[in-house]
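ARCHIVE CARD
Drawer: 12
Card no.: 0347
Subject: one protein chain, sequence and derived structure
Cross-reference: see card 0346
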Amino acid sequence: MLDLTVALAGLFVGFVVGLTGMGGGALMTPLLVLLFGIQPLAAVSSDIVASMVMKPVGGAVHWRSGTVNRRLVLWLMLGSVPSAFFGVFLLKSFGTGPEMQTAVKHALGVALFIVASGLVLRPLLTRARAARGDSEAPLQVRPLPTLCIGIVGGLVVGVTSVGSGSLMILMLLMLYPAIRLKELVGTDLVQAVPLVASAAIAHLLFGDFKLSLTASILIGSIPGVYLGARFSSRAPDHVIRPALVVVLLASALKLLGVSTFWVGIVGATLTVVGIAYAVTVSQRLARARVLEAAPARVVETAPAPEPGVHA
């Protein structure tokens, strides 16, 4: 039976994904566990199967645009596809009792900490890459480290449903700081398709997949992604990113069993810091726009030369 409240949560998560490009598992799975009381294993299984339906859309766009490093995708796949399947198999081998559900919750909490850290580090790495300038030379793929990234990313996705986007992008940026941003996003989206498919198939076979839960997620998230993408150009990154960091860290603390009091204290503190950051960046951008517009106004208001007078 379809759940309207879950569909509305899917609409919200889909909108955020379309708005920011952030992977939906980092938001949807904690929502299912914390707000709707879904068992952690069922939340992971159903969310990862829903992601399998949505992932190919963005990947196909980048594949047709030529912004995908196919050799990089190949080495990532060789690591992530078997490790994602193995991660789900490990979950199943430990059973579905209370201890296992608690272990999944804790693993999800740790994964959210990593993703939130990635949201903070990614713009720093991106700015460092931009300062060096885009290299026109073809990217030199490093097979063994890339394979290791695939293995780690696949295992995390298989266990928690989190990491196919944000975590993998962070690791790729650290290994390939000179990679072009379009190629980075395109490569990550395409490698996520077989990765998520492998984890989804494993969850269908060994996990706790709920068809009605997955359908409810998809009914909301598909139009949400479309709407978010339409509004993406209007979403200032310096406002959205701190808000996501606060939500993810608060969710991580709750999943790790921290009391609501301390979650509230940490959340309030991070909210103040995030608002200060957003205001500071907004003021800096406003000053930059004023400085850019000043020469144009000087030219427009400069007096015209008198007739017969030559400059």
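Annotation on reverse: Residues 260-301 form the longest helix (42 residues). The chain has eleven helices and no strands.
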